[in-house]
Here is the input.
Amino acid sequence: MNFTSESSGKRIPCFRVLDDNGYPIAGSIFEQVNKEVAVRMYSGMVTLQIMDTILYETQRQGRISFYLTSTGEEAINLASAAALSPDDVVLPQYREPGVLLWRGFTLQEFANQCFGNKADYGKGRQMPIHYGSQKHNYFTVSSPIATQLPQAAGVAYSLKMDKKDACVVTYMGDGGTSEGDFHAALNFAAVMEVPVIFICRNNGWAISTPITEQFRSDGVVVRGQAYGIRSIRVDGNDALAVYNSVRTARQTAINEQRPILIEALTYRVGHHSTSDDSTKYRAVDEIEHWKTAQNPVSRFRKWVQGNGWWTDEDESEFRSNIRKQLMEAIQLAARKEKPPIANLFTDVYEENPPNLVEQERSLGETIKKHPQDYPSDVPL
Amino acid sequence: MSAILRKIIAPGGIPAWGIRVIASRTYSSSAGGKEMTVRDALNSALDEEMSADPSVLLMGEEVGEYQGAYKVSKGLLDKYGPKRVIDTPITEAGFTGMAVGAAYHGLRPVVEFMTFNFSMQAIDHIINSAAKSNYMSSGQISVPIVFRGPNGAAAGVGAQHSQCYAAWYASCPGLKVLAPYNSEDARGLLKAAIRDPDPVVFLENELLYGESFPISAEALDSSFCLPIGKAKIEREGKDVTIVAFSKMVGYALKAAEILAKEGVSAEVINLRSIRPLDRATINTSVRKTNRLVTVEEGFPQHGVGAEICASIVEESFEYLDAPVERITGADVPMPYAANLERMAVPQVDDIVRAAKRTCYRSVPVAVNA
Here is the structure.
């Protein structure tokens, strides 16, 4: 009688391409990234960093109500996006705006959503950072944790039925893997044999819950096998490793019509969100260490610069450019009109039901009767 | 002839058939009229819609090989294959989430819950995803999904298998909630639900599955469809309006027969649609009769009757000649013992008494604790 041990003794090894100093590790086999893709990836990572810093401040200043950064996870964001095709459907959690950035969402579009103005694609219906864009194949961010996981399996089923040359990519954090939906999603995806890549950003913290209190397994990667899913653990702060693993995962998912689980190890440098102060539950030097010594952006920069594809001048010029663009986008977004009141009633259903038609009409009459009481900054 | 269909269902598992007596409700059939059970009506509706639109899928526990826990999907696996009739693992959260995702991307899933009691394990996907996505994504994500299955009390299945979810789902904007009564309702409303671009909660009734109702040639046509949001006046009357849905419509009609013998002419309204609620039809009827009794199996607090009462008070207060009477299930989790169960759900007598109270107020009003 042999009980399988609760732990295999050895931790699953982690796939890496670049060492901490940005040099390819001797003997590592990886698909090369050309200058164009590398520079685009790197500049995307820098843009994300700057966007996070400035929009976070904007919330602190009271100009937007909420913000959530992806600081420390720029490599996962941009490198995974770079490895996908525009036809691949993305179901994010909420810490993946870099994927949308890669796909062409502009700084103005990000700002518009955060300010909930008239140009926001979400028509002012959602909190900041709940971006969504049909044309970029990026599903609107939904707050409840991990609900996107079984839904991703469903989208993948739809792709499978259409026999499309595309897959679904869905993201979650370490905390999200504790949700019942994680279990159901992986089980389903395996049984239904659908082309979906589950990318877990294991960043060490779920608000104040460290991974030591989140699970007792060897991280997330070991769970894949329990569902019959091929899995890999990857250094999430190594842009090339992330790029390579997602590329391979994508090919496998589509050619073999099977799900893949990727655990990308990283660290959440920022607070969970603007509603959190993580210094209350973790050491400041821990945060500092990951912010500096383990910074994925500077690590990739070393490699890109090492190839002669980027210089210090490029860096300072690019950074100041993006800062300027973003500040202008924010000014514009803040000044832009709010969405009209008609948006209160539309999209509840495909067609407005009689009770909403009646309520809208009734509201219109009340506004006409008491124009002095109607707020001047809400267009009709 | 009374009908009892008894089932013992393990939660989420396969029902073990207990004593089975054939259920039939004999109407004096109209000359040469056809009859159809609700089960067959649902089956034919699913079959026709799946045939007409290849993006319609059926998924749930036991829907395929087992032919459906209640045999509603009989024959569909053979006809459409395992890619369109999907037997799922036991995870409501899993298959509901998956179906919502599939609907996001252009398929039209029909999700079967073995009973709506189990839908609670998936309720986040129904409310936070299916109901709200079109609004939150400002029209970019539409969810043409149908959630269907038996709702409300069955017979001898206890508290966790007997709750009525009409009020819960109908309170949520973004959802449409339908409750068929007879076979024509079942066919027309299910077809409408499957064709509808919005998420629809389709509340069936287990005890009605085996009941046979007359069905017109028009209703048998594959293009037949009933409008969502319109109630049906099952029986015209002038003294009191009785509003009900699902199984209680049958009870209300029986009550109307009894009342007719005592000189009270009751108008029976079959809601068919809980959300949108056909307030116009109800109010017009009450303005005619001046009295209202609502009937439902669900719990009393915040129930469907409460909403109807509020609607009448808001729009037709001056027309009421008596306070509105609500007949509901008892404010307790459903007991198992047959005698207690009988006391916990409305009976025809309760409806008759309530209608009489609105007409004469001769019987003291029952005190609600």
Notes: Chain B has two domains: 35-220, 232-358. The two ends of chain B are 36 Å apart (CA to CA).
